[in-house]
Write a structure and sequence with these properties.
This protein is mainly beta and 137 residues long. It is 9% helix and 37% strand. The protein has a domain at 50-135: Immunoglobulin-like. The chain contains one helix and seven strands; from the N terminus they run αβββββββ. The protein has a four-stranded antiparallel beta sheet, with no helix packed on it.
Length: 137
Amino acid sequence: MKKVPSWLFFVALAPASCVPRQPPEPVLLPEPTPKILVEEEIVVPERPELAILDVVEGPGPDKETALVSGIVENRGSGRARNLRVTVQVLDESGTPLLSLPAEVSSATVDPHSQVTFRAQLRRPRGAAKIHVVAESR
């Protein structure tokens, strides 16, 4: 038998190692299960929205007393409970000189309804304007 030179073995092996490999078979993943969406209705809470209308300042029983009256209207969709109306007498700079609660015709105001308020007060020296605040729960 003839002896084959060893370099020929490497020359024959080199082309065989240059053959490109085949990519592996892709792995198929199962389809993801779709998420079930549930529609929710968002409920907007009913809230009162108070507006002060027709504030009138008139003379009281004596020269130093004034009578302040007006209307509180609930423009919101919820009932106003525990209505409190405060009448403030302010000076030129807006600083309160006097603050007192007013009488209201009802402590509860239904949506789209009105109640009246009234306060009798002594006008302090330096009074420039009247400010009315309505609050509820």
